[in-house]
Amino acid sequence: MLSQNQIKRVSALRIKKFREEYGQFLAEGEKLAQEMLNSRFRIVEIYADASWIISNLPLIRQKEIPVFETLPREMERISALATPSPVLAVVQKPESGSQISAPPIGHPSSGLNLALDDIHDPGNLGTIIRIADWFGIETVFCSEQSVELYNPKVVQATMGSITRVMVTRCDLAGLLSVCTGKIPVFGTFLEGENLFEQDLPSEGIILIGNESRGISKELVPFVTKKLYIPSFGPSRLGKAESLNASIAAAIICAEFRRKEKGEK
User: Fold this and answer.
1) By CB atoms within 10 Å of each CB, which of 67, 84, 109, 197 scores lowest?
2) DSSP letters spanning 32-93
3) CATH topology of domain 4-92
4) Is 50 exceeded by the pLDDT of residue 259?
């Protein structure tokens, strides 16, 4: 049985203030916990039902992780989900500059990188990290005004990709200014060129704008190639005003990878 102190401390990690104070975050769900268990992240402790503990006992013992058998009614009290899962892991935030963190500002990894300009929706950030993982993009730079990486909804939406994609918060203007003349920067604009008609390189920074206002004015001068995702909907059906940020990111990343393979 969990103590009141355990329940109080774990529950507190739903709140940003306490995540920062303790330097820890929540990873909830069987897939996410399994990804964390097999990653370089350090798991502080695990709360799970007996079945999950038995299935993962060898690795838990190998990593010497404290584990607490948790009843369904107890999981309801510590879970950040509407429907609690069988397992919840308390994970240590990586220290700045660790292998899990992204390269320092001004040093994007080779190949494609994503830069996110004030992404506010947790689901969007988590999904974009998952998209980066799918398309083999190792590094994601987030502006300092973007939603917190360790928000439970962000972590959940990554579906484990947070363990493989290097994510860092930084001053995007500073990052892009250092890259000027060295690495091409791509962004989408209404006045941009048709994405599907361009020769796209295998190296560069893809800049994804804020959900409501797009790419901020201060970052526009750093964009070396303006792109546009055309709409194909029949005019009689009308047109969507815009695309969701994560959907736009997926389309752009897919086209870059397709062109990289030389497909027409």
Assistant:
1) 197
2) HHHHHHTSSSPEEEEEE-HHHHHHHHHHHHHTT--EEE--HHHHHHH-SSSS--SEEEEEEP
3) 60s Ribosomal Protein L30; Chain: A; (3.30.1330)
4) yes
Predicted TM-score (pTM) of this structure:
0.91
Cross-strand partners of 204: 112
Cβ contact 100:226 at 8 Å: no
d(CA 256, CA 48): 41
Nearest to 26, CA basis, from 149, 168, 164: 149
Angle, CA of 223, 176 and 202, to the nearest 5°: 65
Q: Is 239 exposed, middle or buried (0-12, 13-18, 19+ CB in 10 A)?
A: exposed
Query: What's the CATH number of domain 112-260, 2.30.40.10, 3.40.30.10, 3.40.1280.10, 3.40.350.10?
Result: 3.40.1280.10
Question: What does the pLDDT read at residue 264?
Answer: 56
